[in-house]
């Protein structure tokens, strides 16, 4: 390069460093006019053009620089950055690897390669890149922050916590790090410490929506419903179109004992109205309207794993008539397990959709020509309601995962029964209830459940009421009702078990019960398993299980019944509060269903004083349940298929096609 060109290049670099990119660009171009092969000018002009919003020109210039000096690691690195910004991930990966080949000590190249591999869902490889980047640069906040997030995504929570604590130490003012650390702590069950991290993240950056969402979720996990609703309301007000934040708020409201069914329904309808406003693509399935042909049924869930939903879905997909129905399972599962593999064997077609966006998922449903699409998550985590709102299937149905109406006009029906939705009661939801004669659900018990033991009060000489519910269900009204029952049964105790039982929740329970006259020593808290290792073994200590409201625990009820423990429930005004009543009806334990707080106390007291009757129930209940409609998967599925066929015939009669 001539001396004059070198002088111009140095002046251009000065402007570049000062941020005067226009002047720098002009001078770099002057250098290249004199020396088109100047690798340095090509490289630096490429960087300037990238900053000035001209990525394609930048890429071409950086490629020319690499061609001129292929030994320069930095050239390959900068080319990789531009390629990554354009989502050209394969080429970016190649560029970063070439940079590392030429300079293995270039920490940033390892870091950016990790980012690319993470986007390509090659998480183990991404982790190794972040590990190397953090080793090469122990003071790199970005490396430790991304390393911690990657560890968490791959399930290595201990290492995630360690890496994120280091990142927080390096940059305590960074909200995203506090948020990431909070998520790792939450995954370890350190809920209260996680809440502190999310609160710090919000204090540092009031626009960090993920921190609001995570804070709301962990407040719910801890059992602090009122605080959770306040946080989620605030987040929803800040970003009303965020479907996930709004859905999480709706879940919290569904636990609120003070909300009416009509108000809750309107809250859900609001989600639908907001999302419809921003949904520009509407689907118009053109499936053949033959009423008698083989139907294509699609089940959509993030819970095709060891999860309560699987206990209710498995007996259905295991007994479907595959001559009349072709079964598709759309699995939103990132980490399959043994249950996933077992469920796969029942489906005609298994689709993994965890990496799909809404458009791709809708396209798949239409490509599969699904006739009836069944949602199994409602507004719960990882739901696909933004896809359902686009109506990719002619008929859409909500079932089992969420006990409240979704509020979506695009969802036509909701699987229910005459107990949850009595025929003479006005329906407040937009979904039409399908009242299944065999009940709204069918249950498959744990194959490795502990055996049923003798009635505990026979040895302790005192009645033990029990709860294995999510702490969020232990609201003040529930606890006050339980306290009244305990006051009516002298010497009785309350056993509360949950592995996620927080110190905050314990204090709340004690405080509320104390005001009602229940001494602390009458309450037993457990968050550890018994020696047999299965949490259902806790029922060996329980004489009568107590249900919650307004969201009853129908999964918990099924588990208690399988362990020989009857469940006392209050059948309330919310459909969600009637699920346990439906379950009890299927096993002929109607005497444990009550209609008012007064009846709840009276019936609980009566049963507490009938030890011999409780013993007889305990001895026979597992056998009785096994032979009941509740566990008859074959009959339930036949009834369900009849309902599917009926709604399909109604669809076929609406319009010619």
Task: Give your account of this protein's structure.
- Strand 12 (567-570), helix 25 (579-586) and strand 13 (593-594) form a beta-alpha-beta unit.
- Helix content is 53%, strand content 9%.
- The protein has three domains: 3-214, Tetratricopeptide repeat domain (Serine Threonine Protein Phosphatase 5, Tetratricopeptide repeat, Alpha Horseshoe); 260-442 and 633-657, Rossmann fold (3-Layer(aba) Sandwich); 457-631, Glycogen Phosphorylase B (Rossmann fold, 3-Layer(aba) Sandwich).
- The chain is built from 28 helices and 13 strands.
- The strands form two sheets. Strands 3-2-1-4-5-6-7 form a seven-stranded parallel β-sheet, covered by helices on one side. Strands 10-9-8-11-12-13 form a six-stranded parallel β-sheet.
- It has 657 residues and is α/β, with parallel strands linked by helices.
The averaged pLDDT comes out at 94
Secondary structure tally: strands? 13
Residues in helix, %: 40-55%
Identify the overall geometry.
elongated
The profile of the biggest β sheet is: 7 strands, parallel
Q: How much of the residues is beta strand, in percent? A: 5-15%
Question: What is the CATH class designation of the largest domain?
Answer: Mainly Alpha
Uncertain runs: none
> How many structural domains in the coordinates?
3
Rg is 30 Å
The first-to-last residue Cα distance is: 75 Å
**What is the overall number of helices?**
28
| Category from helices, strands and their pairing | alpha/beta
CATH topology (level 3) name of the largest domain: Serine Threonine Protein Phosphatase 5, Tetratricopeptide repeat
CATH superfamily of the largest domain: Tetratricopeptide repeat domain
Strands across the major sheet, in which order? 3-2-1-4-5-6-7
Q: What's the architecture of the largest domain in CATH terms?
A: Alpha Horseshoe
